Amino acid sequence: MTVVDVVVPDSYDDPERPSGGNVYDRRLCAELASLGWAVRVHRVPGAWPDAGPAGARDLAAALAAVPDGALALVDGLLGSGHPQALLPESARLRLVALVHLPFGSVDSTDGAVGREVRDREARALGCCAAVVTTSRWSRHWLLDHYPLAPDRLVVAAPGVDPAPVAAASATGGRLICVGAITPVKGHDLLVDALAGVGDLDWTCTCVGSVDVDSDFVRQVVARAEAHDIARRVRMCGPLAGVPLDAAYAGADLLVLPSRAEAYGMVVVEALARAIPVVASEVGGVPEALGVADIPDGERAETPGLMVRPDDPAALARALRDWLTDPALRERLRGRALARRADLSPWSDPAARVADLLGSVAGRRTRG
After folding, report:
1. N or C: which end of the chain has fewer CB within 10 A?
2. How far apart are CA 194 and CA 173, in angstroms?
3. How far is 98 from 217, CA to CA, in rounded Å?
4. Which domains can be identified in the chain, with CATH numbers?
């Protein structure tokens, strides 16, 4: 039996932090185990990705506990920012990085700070035997910005579980936004866009942690109150399992106003229920949205509407189109239903990662 040591954030299985990265890590470990791998999970404490020097020390300690010559799959949330923890271990371990979202693609700081972020990530990934990315977009971004070998970068896009088709309402006004309430997820943009359609009939349920950035949450709430729409925007905190299923079942449209996304797992979660999507055209979101394979020969179309990122007016226009055009809603629901049939199970990315790990396991360590 082949062994893989998987190094993940301490929040890996925290029900209060059901992030896409944590879900991906858990499902990948479970699927690898089902393929016959012995999976040893190492949780590293810290407020990742901003765990600071203490986090770097804890990461180094976790890696030091991995036996010589072992395969170590390291979540990029930890490893990408701390090359000083990875470099000393790269000669004795077969390091593989799992990059959910390149740090350098998110940091918009000009000058020395932005260069330092990208330099750290380039050094961290450069000392790994291989890199797994969760979208084609992430792979292209890394190859465009860092001196990495293309044959060492493998895409393993997230899978999704089958789910019942959500029953549509007559007005399409039950909106859902899934993601931690943080600036990157764009809830401030969402509130401004919803204010632009305040004359129409809708409610919006925001599913996601309110503890990651409490100051930003307060700003979003104040913004909704200033627009006089707070009573129509419900923040219900993080949900998983049956409660999350119920939230999707009661939704007509997923709204994803993110400023950055490597893929957008919530997009395929919605499509698995034939729920159309309105989303910012960022990162790997177009990959997740995909195109519907229309069986009657009609030209394939996306099962949703893409809008310019960081543009609440564009988002408001898309929402108005959705809410006021029954024919558009019907078309997008049909496309979402068709796209639902093409979604991949979690066994697919696990098989790709297993193949990569098997290849790395057959290589000699640098020592």
Report:
1. N
2. 11
3. 29
4. 3-159+345-361 (3.40.50.2000), 174-340 (3.40.50.2000)
Model pTM score: 0.92
- CB 329, CB 171: distance < 8 Å: no
* Per-residue pLDDT reduced to its tens digit, 330-360: 999 999 999 999 999 999 999 999 999 999 9
Which residue type does 273 have?
A: R
Half-sphere exposure in the Cβ direction for 157 (13 Å, CA): 24
CB 191 within 8 A of CB 299: no
Cβ neighbours around 212 below 10 Å, total? 18
Contact (Cβ atoms closer than 8 angstroms) between residue 279 and residue 264: yes
| Cα–Cα distance for residue pair 70/93, rounded to 1 Å | 5
Q: Which amino acid is at 367?
A: G
Contact (CB, 8 A) for 257 and 190? yes
Q: First and final CA of the chain: distance in angstroms?
A: 24
Report the distance separating Cα 150 and Cα 163, nearest Å: 35
pLDDT of 110: 56
DSSP string, 178-224: ES-SSGGGTHHHHHHHHHTTTTS--EEEEES-SSS-HHHHHHHHHHH
Which of 200, 185, 168, 367 is closest to 258 using CA atoms? Answer: 185
pLDDT averaged over 10-residue windows placed end to end, the chain, 367 residues: 91 80 95 96 90 91 95 95 94 96 76 81 96 97 96 97 97 97 96 98 96 94 97 95 96 97 96 98 96 62 95 98 98 96 96 96 58
Token code pair at residue 306: 């893409």
CB atoms within 10 A of CB 326: 12
Instruction: Residue 200: name the closest of 305, 325, 304 by CA.
Output: 325
Q: How many angstroms separate the CA atoms of 255 and 319, rounded?
A: 9
